[in-house]
Every structure is written in structure tokens, then in C-alpha cells.
Design a protein that fits this description.
alpha/beta, four-stranded mixed beta sheet, three-stranded mixed beta sheet, 7 strands, about 20% helix, globular
Length: about 130
Amino acid sequence: MKRTWTIIGVGDVPGSFKWYQALFGQPPTLPAHDDFGQIFDSDGTVLLCLHAWGAHEHPPLMSPNHATPGNGLLLFFRVDDFDLALPRARALVARLEEEPHVNPNTQTKEFSLRDPDGYYVTISALSAT
């Protein structure tokens, strides 16, 4: 089995951690460290890693000033509670980037929003409607 751990640079790990937990309908907890946290699915799968800008001297995570956060990256999450995820998302942002619609390629409902650091996040229903 192979898994990816997507790691994004963020300005406030605890704040972003709380934001993603709210988006996914997870109970709030604290990240393991102030400069790094992992968002897990209920089965222990890592959904997303949040890394503080400039911590640990990783070259692509040194500063958001070298490139726009999220440029060339789309965070795409398939969820089994789409109808509950939509109001959670609306509570987190002033407006959605894309309103709910059916993706013609996947034949599933999806919507998109921006996270606190400006990353483009798409939430897609796990199964077709």
C-alpha cells in the first residue's frame, strides 16, 4: 500500500488545525506541535499535514513570500458526508469559491472554498448523486 502525506505551509498551525477539523466535522483537538500537525481520518489515515512556515528549514516551506501559497496545488477531499460538509464550510468562509455543482468528470457533487492561508480546497461527495 502507498499513501501520500500532503504537507502545506501555514501561518498558524493550531488555527489551521481547528479550521480543517471544523470543515471535516471532527472534534477539536490540538496539533502534536505548534509548528506541525496532522489531520487524521477516523481510521488513522493522514488526510493533511500542516507545517509552520520557516520551521525545520525545509526549502519549499521557508516562507510564503517566495510564492503564492496554493499556486499549482488543489486540495481535493472526497467525503462521505457531503450534505453536512456544505453548511460546515459555509460557516467557515464569507463565500464559496465554487457553489455546489455536479462535476461532469466524477459525476459527484462538489464545491470549493479557500482555507485561512489561501489554499484552494475542493470538497467532493464520495459517491455519485
